[in-house]
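Try this one yourself first.
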């Protein structure tokens, strides 16, 4: 698939999972309009972004994925930028199927070939902090970030070969 003149390929995890799919604008809007409160707060207060405009923009880039849960509802979006900057935003559906969601998130992260995955997470987003720990990320330091200068935790994971 071509996107903005670049060849976009999705990781193999999409090909072997019933719950990980190439992103669509529809999925981006479903997540944007139904974010978990901590995820909404992280996007708006921590990054100064409006999820209803930002997430459909991300969907047009085409390199992200969306997750569903066993009943077919959309549970979240995830992606990795060119420099290994990994991100994820979720709906409350992850709380209905926490084991399935965590396993699928692990499948996605493990399928990535970047030598280093990294980003920052809002200190208040305890569900994502637990998930990141489960996924094998290491927490590095606390940094103040965004328009409100909020505390975020920098995290990373080195690719296991």
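Now uncover the answer:
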């Amino acid at each position: 698939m071509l996107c903005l003149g670049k060849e976009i390929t999705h990781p193999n995890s999409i090909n072997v999972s019933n719950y990980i799919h190439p992103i669509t604008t529809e999925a981006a809007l479903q997540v944007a309009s139904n974010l978990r409160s901590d995820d909404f707060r992280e996007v708006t207060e921590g990054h100064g972004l409006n999820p209803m405009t930002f997430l459909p923009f991300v969907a047009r880039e085409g390199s992200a994925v969306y997750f569903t849960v066993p009943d077919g509802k959309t549970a979240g979006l995830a992606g990795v930028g060119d420099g290994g900057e990994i991100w994820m935003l979720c709906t409350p559906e992850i709380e209905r199927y926490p084991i399935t969601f965590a396993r699928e998130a692990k499948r996605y992260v493990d399928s990535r070939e970047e030598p280093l995955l990294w980003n920052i997470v809002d200190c208040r987003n305890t569900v994502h902090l637990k998930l990141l720990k489960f996924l094998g990320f290491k927490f590095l330091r606390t940094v103040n970030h965004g328009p409100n200068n909020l505390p975020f935790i920098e995290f990373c994971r080195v690719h296991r070969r």
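Discussion: Residues 12-158 form a domain with the Aminopeptidase fold (CATH 3.40.630.30). The chain has one domain: 12-158.
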